[in-house]
Amino acid sequence: AADKIHLIPQDFFAELCEQIIQHLNHKIPGVNTAELCQRIQTSGVEITIGDLAKIVNVLSFLFSTAGRNNLSTEELVTTLGRAVSTLPKHAVQVIRHVWNEQGKAIAGSEDARNMAAVGQFVDMKWKLGVAMSSDTCRSLKYPYVTVTLTVADPSGQMTEKSFEMTIPQFKNFFRQFKEMASVLETV
């Protein structure tokens, strides 16, 4: 990922670092890598969403580890300089600036020390559909529900997962959500 960082212009790299810090501080649900990748590509830089996702993972690990170890800005930059010699100068400057400005919130956070490797639920969309017919069956009239979940992984990268359910499956899914809601009300 370090060799791909040099492709990203400094302003986009700074925005990416700030979004990761905000995600680690629980201010935003995650980094929308698809939207950011599209903006970077529109500016004329050839980078894939996969490469950008790797960079997000590396930076998220860097900032969360620095927070967990309560590193000062100078300790972070020194350690970074020893570990990664291929990092472009502008990237080190951005990391230094962002950590100096916003890293103290992560370093002081109990969450940074206890960060779990689980995703965070961001959004859910659903729609009802009916399959009318297919190549092999003339009359289906089969209702189904399509659910799309948006989840931010621990690094903050947002992904969408879609699945279909029959009406009985959806009713069971709904019942389980109602059970969760009633349990949460007692907490």
UniProtKB/TrEMBL annotation:
The chain positions of domain COMM read 120-187
Question: A Gene Ontology molecular-function term?
Answer: NF-kappaB binding
Superkingdom of the source?
Eukaryota
Native source organism of the sequence: Ptilonorhynchus violaceus
Name of the coding gene: Commd6
> What does the protein in this record do?
Scaffold protein in the commander complex that is essential for endosomal recycling of transmembrane cargos; the commander complex is composed of the CCC subcomplex and the retriever subcomplex. May modulate activity of cullin-RING E3 ubiquitin ligase (CRL) complexes. Down-regulates activation of NF-kappa-B. Inhibits TNF-induced NFKB1 activation.
User: What PROSITE patterns does UniProt report for this protein, alphabetically?
Assistant: COMM
Family as reported in the entry's similarity comment = Belongs to the COMM domain-containing protein 6 family.
Q: Which PANTHER family match?
A: COMM DOMAIN-CONTAINING PROTEIN 4-8 FAMILY MEMBER, COMM DOMAIN-CONTAINING PROTEIN 6
Protein name, entry field: COMM domain-containing protein 6
Query: Which Pfam families did the record assign?
Result: COMM_domain (PF07258)
